[in-house]
């Protein structure tokens, strides 16, 4: 853990962030007037190994799911049909 004064942190901020991101450093403490005021640490990486298919088996897709596609497309285009006017 390094302690860096505020002026140094502002001057070398990009370099310090690169060191954190690369893993060369795991923490910096920034001080103002000799007193610690902030700590810079890396953000833990989120688990993203299994995103596609995460809900597989959680629900059943109805056979007629695509039945209203034309009507929904008309709604998105601001069109109305005689039997179902837009509100």
Automatic annotation (TrEMBL):
Signal peptide: none annotated. Transmembrane segments: none annotated. It comes from the Bacteria. InterPro entries: Antitoxin_Phd/YefM (IPR006442), YefM-like_sf (IPR036165). Belongs to the phD/YefM antitoxin family. Antitoxin component of a type II toxin-antitoxin (TA) system. This is Antitoxin. It comes from Methylocaldum szegediense. The lineage of its organism: Bacteria, Pseudomonadati, Pseudomonadota, Gammaproteobacteria, Methylococcales.
């Amino acid at each position: 853990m390094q302690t860096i004064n505020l002026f140094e942190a502002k001057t070398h901020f990009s370099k310090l962030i690169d060191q954190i991101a690369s893993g060369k450093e795991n923490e910096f403490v920034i001080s103002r007037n000799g007193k610690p005021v902030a700590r810079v640490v890396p953000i833990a990486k989120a688990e993203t190994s299994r995103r596609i298919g995460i809900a597989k088996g959680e629900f059943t897709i109805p056979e007629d799911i695509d039945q209203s596609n034309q009507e929904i497309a008309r709604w998105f285009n601001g069109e109305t049909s005689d039997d179902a006017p837009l509100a």
